[in-house]
Amino acid sequence: MKAVWSITKKELMQYFSSPIAYIVVAIFVLLSGFFFYSLVWWFNSQAIQMAQNPYYFQQVNINQMVFAPLFHNLSIIMLLMLPLLSMRLFSEEKKLGTEELLFTSPVSVNQIILGKYLASLLMLLLMLLLSAIPTIFTFVYGNPEPLPYLLGYLGLFLLGAAFLGIGLFWSSLTENQIVSAVLTFGTLLLFWVLNWVGYSARGLWKDVLNYLSFFEHFDGLTRGILDTSDLVYYLSFAFLGLFLTHATIQSRRWR
Amino acid sequence: MIETTGLTKKYGDLVAIKNLSFKVEKGKIWGLLGPNAAGKTTTMRILTGYLPATEGKAIVAGYDVFEQADEVKKVIGYLPETVPLYHDLTVEAYLGFVAEIKQVPASRKKAAIDRAVEITGLQPVRKRLIKNISRGYKQRVGIAQALIHNPQVIILDEPTIGLDPKQIVEIRQLIKSLKGEHTIILSTHILAEVKEVCDGVVIINEGQLRASGYLDELAKNYSHNDGVYIKLQQVDQETLNLFRQINGLKKAEIEGSEIKLEWSWDTDLRPQVLKLCLEKGLVLKEMRPLAADIENLYLRIVSGGMEQ
Known about the structure:
The structure holds two protein chains of two kinds.
Chain A: H1 2-17, H2 19-50, H3 54-57, H4 62-86, H5 88-96, H6 99-103, H7 109-132, H8 137-141, H9 146-173, H10 177-192, H11 194-200, H12 203-212, H13 214-222, H14 228-254
Helix pairs in contact in A: 1-7, 2-4, 2-7, 4-9, 4-10, 5-9, 7-9, 7-14, 9-10, 9-13, 9-14, 11-12, 13-14
Chain B: E1 2-11, E2 14-24, E3 29-33, H1 40-47, E4 55-60, E5 63-64, H2 69-75, E6 76-79, H3 91-101, H4 106-120, H5 135-147, E7 153-157, H6 165-177, E8 183-188, H7 191-197, E9 200-205, E10 208-214, H8 215-222, E11 225-232, H9 237-244, E12 249-255, E13 258-264, H10 270-280, E14 284-289, H11 293-302
Parallel strand pairs in B: 3-8, 3-9, 6-7, 7-8
Antiparallel strand pairs in B: 1-2, 1-4, 4-5, 9-10, 11-13, 11-14, 12-13
C-alpha cells in the first residue's frame, strides 16, 4: 500500500506541476458553475409562473428541475475532460523512458496501476467537490432533498471512475498522449450512444445495448434511485479498464 | 556477484543476444563493450529484470533474475540508456520518489537523498525543476537515482553519452569512486572509457560474446605482439636494417614516414631501440606505442576479424 501511495503522490505532483490539471479543473468548475447558474435562473422563472397555479406549484421540484439536468450536463463535460486527465498516465512514462525506472523497481505492476488510477480518481474528486460549492447555496435558500443530490454526485464519481479506467487502458497502449486521449474519447462516446441504437433494436439486442450504455445507468442515479446493478456496472467498467491495462503491460514486457 | 549462463534474447525472429555467459566479481567495475546494436542494452535490461530472457540464466547478488525478480530489483541500481527523469519535478522531489519506490525506509529517506546528492555533486540544482537543469546535471540525477538505495549492484547504460569532455571526466571519476562498495557494470562503445574506468570487460558483437575477463589478462591472451612506431629525421632501408639487428625483434618495416617495430608482448625492447639510435647518431623525433593491445583486440573483434 505504501508503494501505491508513493506512485499516487508522484502523479499528483506531476498533475499540479503542469498546467493541464489546473486548466481541466478550472474549465470544469467554470462550466459547471455556468450550467448551474442558468438552470437556477430558468427554475426561478418557471417557479414564478407556476406559483400562479396551485396545482402546478406542487410540481415544482428543485431536484428534478435543477440537479437532474445539471448532473447530465456535468457528465457530458466529464466525457470531454477526463480523457485529458488519463491520457498521460502511462503514455508519458513510455515516452520519457521512465517506465524502465518503474518496472526495475521493487514495486509490482498492480501497485503502479493502482497508484496511477488512485491519483486520477483524486483529481476527479477534486473537480466534483469544487463544482459542488455553488450548489450548496440551494440548501441555504431552499429545501432540496439531500439524498438524490448526493446520489447524483455519487453517480458522477462512478461514471468518472469508469471513464478513467478506460482512459488508463488506452494510455498503456500508446506513447502518444493525443492518440490515447482520442481513443478514450471515442470509446466513451461509443458507449454513451449505445442506447440510441438500443431504441431501434429488438429483443435481447435491445436489452444488451441498453445495459451497456453509460446513459441508462446514469439516469436512475440522477433521479435518486440507487440500483446495485448500476453500481456493479460502473465498478466493473473501471475494473475492466485496470485489468486490461495490467494485461497490456505484462504482455508487452514478456513478448 | 553477477553471472549469466547461456543468455539468449529473441525479439520475434531477431536474435538480440545469443548464448551469452560471463561473470563479474564483487566490488569490480566491468565494462560491457561493443559497437552500437551489439546487444548491450538488451543484456542490461535482462539483468535488471526489465525484460525476460528467451533462454538462459542470470544470477545477480545470489538471486535468480527470473525466479526472484523482486529480490534482484531491491539490490540493483539502474541507469537506463534514456535517463528516466520526470521533468516537472524538482531534483529533490524526484529523488524522494525514487527512494520511496526503492523501499528506502521513511526514517532514512532524507539521509539517502542527501548522500546521493553529495556523491553526485547535485547541491547547486537540488531545488530546481529537472527540466531546467543542464544535460550534465540530468545525467548526474540519473546516476543519483541509481545510487539512492545504496544498492550492491549498479548497472549503467552508456553513462557518459552526450556529455562534454569535462563532464565525461567528472562522471568517470564519480564511477571510479563507487568501486569497492558496489559492483558496477557499465556499457559503452568507447574503448578509452573501459581502459580508464574498468577492471575487466565483456566484449560483445552482434549479440555474441567475443571476449571477457580482466583487461590485463585479455591483453596477454589475445595479443602476441607489442611494439613502437618511431619517427626519425631520415627513414630509409639502411636505417631499417640497423634496427633489424636488435635481438628479439620480430618485425621491422617502414610505414609511411615511420618505422614500425614489433616484438613479443612479454619483452620490452624500447631501451635497446633508444640505445641504437644514440650509438648510430639517428635523430629520434618521436616514439609511440603500437595501438594498445586491448584496442587492437577490440578492433579485430568488431571488424569481425576474429572469433574466440
